[in-house]
Specification:
The chain is mainly alpha-helical. It has one domain (2-272, 286-458). The protein has 19 helices and 2 strands. The chain has helices at 2-18, 23-42, 46-78, 92-110, 114-125, 130-138, 151-160, 164-192, 199-222, 225-244, 248-271, 293-307, 311-340, 343-355, 363-374, 377-394, 399-415, 418-428, 434-458, and strands at 278-279, 288-289. Strands 1-2 form a two-stranded antiparallel sheet. Strand 1 (278-279) and strand 2 form a beta hairpin. Helix 3 packs antiparallel against helix 7 (151-160) and helix 6 packs across helix 18 (418-428). The radius of gyration is 21 Å and the shape is globular.
Length: 459
């Protein structure tokens, strides 16, 4: 029975890892594979159960689906024309500015690995190519739990029954440790790119990284989680760009940042609206107010597309958003079927029985693997959060600790995912393969697991 209950997750992860099916097809097959175990557990009550959980899943998927579409439309409105990048020699300060604060800023606003695409474009303009360029670009995806204004974190929190702000606050703690541990790797990659940083540059980059991470912690305690990443990376981007290209770089950066600053202002303004009208069909799950970040992002993106005469680009972005949006919907529905049908709880109990007291230490590796395979924090949380939450409950763990750990490690894995690396290798078009990039990122994976395990030991 346990093998039958585990079949949908094993099938989903196996198909995605082998590259034998697209996310949509793999999830459809996983949904079909979940029915036998659910039928044995619920018998004639199965149709009603599946219908109810599908409706809940569709409701929970509205926000991430809208954010993906809005993020791609927003990027279409503000993206520079292809080939317009200014050619410059490789420089450690410029590489750091492009791949850490600015790349992460764009990722926090739009999600969908846009930050890595921007970073790769900047690196190529500096003549950086090959696996090193892809590995450096991935450094812009270290804040995936806050990427795209955090739909994956919100969804995971809802599935775990934890306030999303608490999940983000917990996830911020290992993120700080992980990013600090990533600094030596970042310097190694810069050296391989032909821009080895000297001691003074390393100290400057360490100071900027500490500034970013201190702002991230502070923002998650004082501001809505959706904009914590945007604020932390945005404020760090200004001094990083000033160092990288003074003084014209700052003026140019401010002009380029104007659309993002406008979006941040709109998001903050929406949060100031008291008691906005909201759709709240399920009391156990968060409401969907008219001031939700998904709505604000869609409105701002639409207004910018109209103002800049880029409606055709916006329509193309919406067409590109259909497939990931459908995949997100299916992931969430699968998560609800497994959780609502009791499968997730039984799998967690079996894991706890099999591993004994060591079972909680499997959480971070499982989350990392799910992120690498599913390629998104939404997919990772939808697939594993119900199991992780049930496993945590079996050991009496704080639900916020479990949700934060899953979001952190799953989000980190998503930044290094098979799909993301395949996209970056395709953009490089120089024969680079994902396996070459993964080998360069092994120290980052080890650092992530160390930070996640430390969270468990100290939590």
């Amino acid at each position: 029975m346990i093998l039958l209950e585990a079949l949908p997750l094993l099938l989903l992860l196996g198909l995605l890892a082998a590259g034998r099916a697209s996310p949509v097809v793999a999830c459809l097959l996983a949904l079909a594979a979940s029915i036998p175990a659910l039928a044995l557990k619920h018998g004639m009550a199965l149709p009603g159960l599946l219908a109810g959980e599908t409706i809940i899943g569709a409701y929970l998927a509205i926000a991430p689906m809208t954010i993906v579409a809005g993020g791609l439309a927003f990027h279409s409105a503000v993206a520079a024309a292809p080939g317009s990048e200014r050619k410059q020699p490789p420089d450690a300060a410029r590489i750091f500015a492009a791949v850490v604060p600015l790349g992460a800023f764009l990722e926090c606003v739009t999600g969908f690995a846009v930050g890595a695409v921007f970073a790769l474009s900047s690196l190529r303009a500096m003549g950086v190519r090959g696996p090193v360029a892809a590995a450096l670009a991935v450094q812009s995806l270290t804040l995936v739990p806050w990427g795209g204004l955090g739909p994956g974190t919100a969804l995971g929190s809802a599935l775990a029954g934890v306030p999303v702000q608490a999940t983000a606050q917990v996830a911020a703690l290992p993120t700080v440790a992980w990013m600090l541990l990533n600094l030596p790797l970042l310097w190694h990659l810069q050296a391989r790119a032909g821009a080895a940083p000297d001691l003074r540059e390393k100290l400057a980059q360490t100071g900027l990284m500490c500034l970013l991470l201190a702002l991230l912690l502070l923002a998650n305690w004082l501001l809505p989680y959706e904009i914590a990443g945007v604020v932390a990376t945005g404020l760090t981007t200004i001094p990083a760009l000033w160092r990288a290209q003074p003084p014209a770089g700052l003026r140019s950066a401010l002009r380029l940042a104007a659309p993002y600053l406008m979006l941040v202002a709109a998001l903050l303004g929406a949060r100031l609206v008291p008691n906005p009208p909201a759709w709240h069909p399920f009391t156990a799950f968060p409401a969907f107010p008219i001031t939700h970040v998904a709505v604000v992002l869609a409105v701002v993106a639409g207004a910018m597309l109209l103002a800049r005469g880029r409606l055709p680009a916006g329509m193309d972005a919406l067409r590109r958003a259909r497939r990931p949006a459908v995949a997100m919907l299916l992931y969430v529905v699968l998560g609800r079927w497994l959780a609502g049908g009791g499968v997730a709880a039984e799998l967690a109990q079996a894991l706890a029985t099999g591993l004994g007291a060591a079972a909680p230490f499997a959480m971070a590796p499982m989350a990392l693997l799910s992120g690498i395979i599913t390629g998104s924090n939404v997919g990772s949380n939808a697939a594993l959060m119900p199991v992780q939450a049930a496993l945590g409950a079996a050991f009496g763990m704080d639900p916020a600790l479990v949700a934060g750990l899953q979001s952190f490690a799953g989000g980190g894995g998503a930044g290094m995912s098979a799909a993301g690396l395949a996209m970056l290798c395709g953009l490089l078009a120089d024969g680079t393969r994902p396996g070459q990039v993964w080998r360069l990122l092994l120290p980052s994976m080890a650092a992530l697991l160390f930070a996640g395990t430390a969270l468990l030991l100290l939590g």
